[in-house]
Amino acid sequence: MPFSPQKRTGTLSGILFVAIFAAAATMIADIAVIKNLGISPLVVGIVLGIFYANTLHNKFPSAWEGGITFSGKKILRFAIVFYGFRITFQQIAEVGMEGFMVSLIMLSTTFILGTILGQKLFKMDRDTSMLTASGASVCGAAAVLATEPVLKSEEHKAAVAVSMVVLFGTIAMFLYPALYSAGVFAGMDDRTFGIFVGGTIHEVAQVVAVGGAYGKDAADAAVIVKMTRVIMIAPMLIVLGIYLSYAAKKNGTTGGGVKLVIPWFAVYFIGMAGVNSLLTQYGAQHSGEAIATLIKNSVENINVIDTFLLTMAMTALGMGTRFAKFRGLGLAPLYTAGAMFGWLLIGGYFITTWVVATF
């Protein structure tokens, strides 16, 4: 037990150590050039963690490992639950059936495509394939973090997935505006382009940067559709847990009955989104009153703390990643992520235009 009398001091020291790295990551991510690239503290955190794992790891007490593991497992689940305070059901309703359908189609097809291509065509293991697919299909690094405990995978596999999200998400940030400005996305107005951006670009920060460059209609549609994709991570993880349970039974690895894997933190995530929706609605009805201001400030503070906790979890994940574990993967993750990026860009364009014309 990490907090047993014998291990308590080491565990607390390890958590504090991770928190110091996360604070550094937060400050680095706030540097203008980093911020403008849409690189979140989570991504900076994993980079710092990997640096530590491959250079300074042996210089610090092994007793701290319990705190690092606690940050990457327990704090992670807590942070994912409170990630729900970034979303309201009212936002999802605003974008209507168009945004919902684009989000649903792109998430499901991208996840399935990435999982199949990764395993069948590029011969990656199941966990790396699914983690890479979750990052591309839902919301980047945060989705990888949320999927990792369901799969119970090794840290370095999540690090591979995050690196692919960073690479292709950054490419999308520059490629999408260039193509739209050049008239390549024929038939799209600013709102439709916003739906396309929100339904296909990896990270929330990247969506904000791209959508915000084309006015309020594009920005609002992009962010709301992206938030719709984010909340869909909860049902996706529940379905994934059920699938893993029955796959284990089919392969004869359960030793009898099926142990249903339900990621309860994903269920609680929806609950927090519901709480946020009620608070937001109350605040809107009492605009200007002290209680509304208190609610708004409280939610903003929760999101700031939650981002820091997620950064801690990502940093801890990086601290468990040794370069030696990457051997044998080759270019398979790059090919898999590249194929998904091609689908998000090309398939996403045709699906978005079809959905907007139909609904």
What can you tell me about this protein's structure?
The chain has helices at about 10-30, 30-35, 40-55, 65-80, 90-120, 125-135, 140-150, 155-180, 190-200, 205-210, 215-230, 235-250, 265-285, 290-320, 330-359. The chain is mainly alpha-helical and about 350 residues long. Helix 12 (about 235-250) packs antiparallel against helix 13 and helix 13 packs antiparallel against helix 14. The mean pLDDT is about 90.
Q: What's a quick, concise take on this entry?
A:
The protein is an all-alpha fold.
Observed structural traits:
mainly alpha, globular, 359 residues, single chain
Coarse structural class: mainly alpha
Please state the overall shape, judged from the principal axes of the Cα atoms.
globular
Helical run tally: 15
Low-confidence stretches: none
Layout of strands and helices, then pairs:
Layout lengths: L7 H22 L2 H5 L4 H15 L9 H18 L6 H33 L4 H12 L3 H11 L3 H27 L8 H11 L3 H8 L3 H17 L1 H18 L13 H22 L4 H30 L12 H27 L1
